[in-house]
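Need Tryptophan--tRNA ligase's 3D structure for a figure. Predict it.
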Amino acid sequence: MTRRLSLLTPSGRLTLGNLLGALRPMRDGQDTADCFYGISDLHALTTPRSPETLRAAIAEQSALLLAVGLDRSTLFRQSRVPAHTELSYLLECVATTGELGRMIQFKEKSRRHETVRCSLFTYPVLMAADILLYQPEQVPVGDDQRQHIELTRDVALRFNTTYGEVFTLPEITVPPAGARVMDLAEPTRKMSKSGPEAGSIALLDPPDVVRRKIARAVTDSDPGPDPVRADRDAKPGVTNLLEILTACGGSADDVTTYGALKSAVTDAVVAELAPIQARYADLAADPAYVQEVFERGAARCREVTAPVLAAARAAVGL
Ligand code: ADP
Ligand code: NA
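Structure prediction for Tryptophan--tRNA ligase:
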């Protein structure tokens, strides 16, 4: 059976964008692959956040992964599988500062911070370790991660050439044209768990919050008697709302005004989130169960990754 790997960083509250673009496809992936889904808690340390904030984000994200139905996967926390950091170090010994300095995401993120943690610079190497340890045939990633997967392939190939064949080079697969949900307040940027809250719907937002955020969503910059239609360039906000509506199982057939559109989107989103929120409430009441699931997952990960790490250690002469 093919292996599928996906990691989510607990850098904020999971959003509707994460659900439609990542979690729903991850759930469907369980039927056709042996899925390893991880919480990349180490990646969350590349930028400053308090221990309390991190702990809360990890707890919420763990229960949410179960609540959206990823219970037929191996769920784990990256920090509970030490092979990730150990292999990352071995890969740092073949990666170069030149190639890491060329990573667009590093350049962009480091520009926004006054001091830059070393881990932000080496993050793509840890990501390479995350992937290579599981030898997945395919790594479905969005455009923003393409350069990092290419780096993973470069580093793996260099390791293999220098020390002997240890790693399978992952193929980059473009995920099926999944919904790309845009920020409600600023519809030319994507909705993000680390972005501003006003334009982002968290999976745990109660119905009245969802209603308020959608009511305030940007539709047109120049209002006027303009029909409700999709036009990504001229009407990014309306297009986004229409796409959210369809992705959440609603229909715009009877929608003729922006008010009706917003009300239909609200109903569809609230209905989409309701079962997730109900399961989340049960799981949040039983943190020991959630922890047990993730610990069982990590134990399987330690087993699966041990031979790969051992081969890498032996290859370099350790
Ligand atoms: P975020 O920007 O919310 O922190 P990440 O960049 O960590 O999200 O990506 C986590 C996963 O969620 C990825 O698979 C990514 O493609 C998906 N994703 C993130 N934001 C969106 C969005 N706005 N629309 C669709 N998919 C998204
Ligand atoms: Na992000």
